Amino acid sequence: MWKLVNGRLIQTTDESRVKFRTNISKAILEQLQAIALKHDTHVNYLLETGLQNVLSQGVITYSKESRPKDRVQYKTTYDKELLAEVKEFATKHQLFINDVIEYSVNYINVEDAKDSSYKNRIEK
User: Fold this and answer.
1) Cα(93)–Cα(83) distance, rounded to whole angstroms?
2) Fewer Cβ in 10 A, N or C end of the chain?
């Protein structure tokens, strides 16, 4: 993100975002990468829309036996408040965060996802 200070642009870190590492299905990740490319966004922005939708419903129907076997490590950034809510939601439902993330893929709304240039925005 960029900030306009005294008529000059200064690159800064977006304090509202945090780095997070998890394991996610490789097949799901590849599918999300294709969707992100097609809609000029990033995978984490897509996941955030799905997570917000799952959290707004307040319920999750997840079978632990159906966990994918092709999980790979995935590192990205998420909105700090959203990630805190997801952690609480996962604990409440006795799931792992990556289970909630994979489940949320079915609730992604591409129209609500930020575009890829969002991280390069200019704030005053």
Assistant:
1) 15
2) C
Q: How many structural domains are present in the chain?
A: 1
C-beta neighbour count of 92 within 10 angstroms? 10
Residue 5 lies in a domain: no
**Sequence-distant contacts of 12-19: CB under 8 A, at least 24 apart:** 14/119, 15/80, 16/79, 16/80, 16/81, 17/77, 17/78, 17/79, 17/80, 18/77, 18/78, 18/80, 18/83, 19/75, 19/76, 19/77
Average pLDDT for the chain: 86
The structure's pTM equals: 0.81
Q: What is the span of the domain harbouring residue 96?
A: 16-123
pLDDT digits (tens, 9 = 90+) for 53-88: 999 999 898 888 888 999 999 998 888 999 999 999
Task: Indicate which CATH number applies to the domain containing 81.
Answer: 1.10.1220
